[in-house]
Design goal:
The complex is a heterodimer of chains A (about 325) and B (about 525). Chain A has 14 helices and five strands. In chain A, helix 11 runs parallel beside helix 13. The longest helix of chain A is centred in the N-terminal third of the chain and has 19 residues. The radius of gyration of chain A is 28 Å and the shape is elongated. About 20% of the residues of chain A have low confidence. With about 525 residues, chain B is mainly beta. Chain B has four domains: about 160 residues, no CATH class; about 100 residues, no CATH class; about 110 residues, no CATH class; about 100 residues, no CATH class. Chain B is built from three helices and 44 strands. In chain B, a hairpin with a 2-residue loop joins strand 41 and strand 42. The chains are: A alpha+beta (about 325), B mainly beta (about 525). Chains A and B meet through helix 3, strand 1, helix 10, helix 12 and helix 13 of A and helix 1, strand 40, strand 41 and strand 42 of B. Strand 1 of chain A pairs antiparallel with strand 41 of chain B.
Amino acid sequence: MAECSPMRESFPLLLTESLDAQSRELTHQHIESCAECAEEWQGMKDAWRMMAELPELEPPARIRQRFLAEIGVAEKPSNVVPFHRRPAVKWLSQAAAVVVLAGGSYLVGHRSRPVTLAPNNATLTSIQSAAIQPAAFSIAETRTVNASNINPNIEGRPDIQNVQFIDTNPHDDQIALSFDVTQHVTVTGEKNDKSMVRLMSYVMENEDRMSPSRSRAIDWVKQTYSDPSNTDPEIAQSLAKVLRNDTHEGVRIKAVETLKTMPNATGDTRDALIAALKNDPNPAVRIKAVDALARLAASGELDSAAVDTLRQKAMQDDENVYVRTKAAEALGKIRP
Amino acid sequence: MKILFRITGLAAIAILASGSLYAAAVSHTERFVRDFPMEIGGSLWIDNPVGNVDVVGSDLPGVSVQVVKAVMAPDSTSLKEGREQTQILIGGDQKTRVVKTVITESRDAKWKSNVSYVVRVPHASQVHVTGNLSEHVKITNIAATVTVKNVNGDITLEQVNGAVTIDSINGDIHFITDDKPTQPVQLTTINGGIEVQVAGDSVLDWIAQSIKGDFRTNLHLERGRISGNAFRALVNSPGGPMMTTTALMGNIFLLSRGGRQEDIRSIRAAVAATQARVGPVGPAGQQNSAVVSETIQTPLVQGNFIYGTPYGNFHIGEVRGFVSLQTGAGQVTLGTVSGDCNIRSGGGPLDLGDIFGNINAHTEAGEVLVRSARKGGEVSTGGGTLRVIFSAGPLTLRNGGGDIIVNRTSGPITAETHSGDVTMSMDSNVRTQHVSAKTTKGNILLNLGPRFGAEVDATVLTTEEDAAGIHSDFAGLTVKRDQFNGKTRVRATGKIGGGGEKVELYTEDGEIQIEQQGVAH
């Protein structure tokens, strides 16, 4: 088609989102109606994405200065922060991490067992033909560490970023947690492994030292540790701490919601629920706290202090009526 | 006259169950009587965590305490332990007598015990009883102050003419006297009901409070007024002592001793009868804003559904008309609504399904879920997670505290939360739309189609100096940092996708992410 050629010429501009709205719309309409151009566009997008995933390397300062001097431009400090695509930021930070801290990650540096190599002779028993894939170029590798090999005590308060939870097979006990510390680290292990539990607790508790979202972390904890076979008192304590101290109301709602699903509440958990019911300014937190206490009441796990709190809450004239009725319902479930 | 009350069976069941549990095992019952001198006008204090208490006022001097201590266990070793761990302490002097049961039972103890007291005191004595689990506490013929506090079990006061304070959690309260009360009476139960029977010519200043229950009487009332969950009136005439009755979840009866049962009338129904009806009502609906509806559950309403109640749960499958619903508190679950949907709730979660008309829904507390808002509308909560699965019209969401999540929208959207994350995803076919999101504590995540065009103004105000602040998958934004009121302000402005409607995002102490659909993160 005659119009294909000019349209294809505008693909690079479309990729970089530099087309004006009208041309952009026309180009998209053409791509939708022309199979060849659609294929061409897809190929270009793939290539663009691959390029984005390649590491961006800063030129050495000496070369940069020489280049700028040759073109007569002096390097000035800028107060404008460049707005990179996120993958590039990630790779740059990893590269920087490797250059600055080539010695290894924070956690890897705290391995409880030193690695030793046995002085055996290498023997070649057979050579198998295999389709060898060229290794992708990477300047900052991801370190994978087994939770059982790391010390459960997290020292200092490391900043951890880009936290992701991985549970490839929900039917087994293996989970993984990946994050950026001084490099990208993936910790794998069993749900109840002490190091894994500590790491999860750390992720939840550290409001200002973790990104992107602790709400997501708590959601994941709920999925993983609400099962009675996986429940861990340390996780419940961390949630109780979040419920007591977190200033983010959405996070507190999630924390109390998760505590509600956890079996075998400890005294600390009960106290946190009672404190939330008494003092939390968010009515949704109080509703969920009273729900959780109702569950404890039904299982005979409430002490007289908790009963008194529920009694006060039910009779509190200025409390939300729904919270009052929920408190009354909880008291109705008290078992001797 | 016999009034049926909700049976507070928990205590009875527990005691009977524990009794039957150990019936096949071993038990031991110990009975004894102790007599002590006590002055006229002295005080009797009884603290009995498990078991009944009967106190009878008498013209005889002194106190007589009859004790029945029963211990049940699966074996003789546990029985012995139970007997040792259940102690009865009687102390005090002639002014103040104290009777106390001390049970040091651990959680894993195999034995159970209960102690019953029948106490005779001079009728001018003050009586104070504290209990936990019993079938009943009964106090008869006392002319001085009486206080009772318990958790489970009915409390009955007969011919008690002093000042009375009763506080129960799950028990019913019966206050019966042939005389006219002359002292203030305060009766409070949370899950039980209250029955008061007094002389027909009693003069009282009656205050009654109940969230779920009704107020019923066959006495003459003057100046009655209802305000929310409370009712206040003068019984017969002004000048009488205060009678305060609070049964949060149960009914309250104030009756004339020997009066006619058919004269008993419902205060809430009387108030409701005076209220005007305001519109057509479907078969399942009735307009009665003073009458408590425990639960309204129906699969289909043919027509409009208009309802008002101080308390009620609603589970309606389909409404072939509009909904206008007002509830003081309770859960609201609606399936499909053909017309507009107006809901005002004093508290409780809202779960709204497929709403074809405009939504205008608000709850003072609790989660809100809207599955489909075809024409958009306004949805708000005083606190709780607010989630909209799909919206096709202009939508305004407000949250007093908690996350706002919009899974897919094609209309303009305004979302504001006091504290919480805002997560919104625009339909991939939408080319441009106005978006406004604000949170004073939390992250904002905006997910847009690859062809979305907008003029973006995104601001992060944070105490973290090195915070990245704003991430975008779209090119075309310029980011600037400066200091504002001692905080770091990161602001990204510019056009994405060639420009379009305004996208305004603002957060404090959080991050903003503008994601492009299809881009891996």
